[in-house]
Sequence to fold (160 residues):
Amino acid sequence: MAETLILSTATDKASRYQVLVPQIEALTTGEPDLIANLANIAAALKQTMNFFWVGFYLVKKDALVLGPFQGPIACTRIVKGRGVCGASWKEKKVIIVPNVDEFPGHIACSSDSKSEIVLPAFKNDEVTLVLDVDSDKLNDFDETDALYLKQVMTLIERLS
Fold:
C-alpha cells in the first residue's frame, strides 16, 4: 500500500490526474474496507487538485448519507432527485454544473461553492454512492475532470 502521495508540479489538470489516478489505485489495492478507501481517495483528490470540497454520499435506503469527505461541514442526507447529488443518483449519470446558482433545486451546503461535478458509482446497475466535488470558482469542471474522475469511480466500483 502506498502511504505517500506524490504531487505533480504540472499546472494542467490532466497531467495532475495522470499522476494521481495510479496512486489512488495503489493506495486502495489490498485494502478491503470501503470507508477507509473512500477517506483516502477524498484526501488524495483534495490534496492534489485543491478542490474546495470533495467527498462521498452513500446510498442508504431512500437517501444519500454523508460519507468520508474533505472540506467544510456538509449536508448529512440528500433525497433522491434533490440537488446535484440527488439528480446524479436518480439519473444515473455524471452531472457538471458550471454555476450552482443556476441549477434548479441546488442544495447550498456552503455559500462558497460556485461550481460542482457529481459522479455515480454502480453495482449491478444500481447507484451505490456518488462522488461530489465542489469548487469555489465558477465553471471549474469540464470533460477532463469527468474523464479522470470516472477512472476513480471505476476503481471504487471494483472495491465495493
Q: What stands out?
A: The chain has one domain: 13-159.
